[in-house]
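Support request, please re-run this one:
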Amino acid sequence: RREMRFISSLLLTDVYLERGNFSSAQVLLQGLSSQTHFDFLIRKVKLLDQQGDLSGAIEAMEQATVLAKATGSKSLINWSLSNLADMYGHDGAIAKSYETYLQALQQDPSDFHALKGIAWIAFSHEKNTTEAKRILHFLQSVHPIPDYSLLLSEIALYEKDEAAALVYQQRFLAEASNPAYGN
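Re-run finished. Output below.
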C-alpha cells in the first residue's frame, strides 16, 4: 500500500512537471518520505532544472548516478551518465561532459544520445565540424531521427554553406512533421 502511494506520487509529479505546474510538483516531492530513492531524485533533477537551479540539479543527478551504479544495471547507469553529461555541458564543464559521455558509452556503445552529445562538443567547443558531421552522418545511417538534420543545419550555417543549411532545415521540417512525431 505504501509502495503504491509512492509510485502514484511519482507519476503525479511527472504529470505536474510535464504540465508546468512546478509548485505542485515541488509540494508533492517534499512530501515523499524516500528522498534518496532513484526515482525521487530524477524527478527532483527535472524540477530543479526547470526552476533554473542547474547546480542543484547536477548535485541531485550525481546522487542518482551513484544509486544507479550501485544497482549494477548497465542501462540505468548508462541513462544516468548520459543525462549527467548533458547537464555538465549545460553548465559549461565541457571536459567533464565529454568524459561522462565516454563513461556512458562504456555501458552502452550504441548510446545514440551520448554520441550526439560528443558531436555537439566537437562542433560547438572544438570547432571540429568534420568530426561532428562524421558522427552525425553515422547516427543518421543507424538511427534516422530529425534532430540530426537540425544540428547539421547549424553546422552548415557555421561553415557559411547556406545551401546545405537550407537542405538540412527542409529535411528536418519534413521529418519532424511526420504524424508519428505527434504535434
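The chain is about 80% helix and 0% strand. The mean pLDDT is 91.
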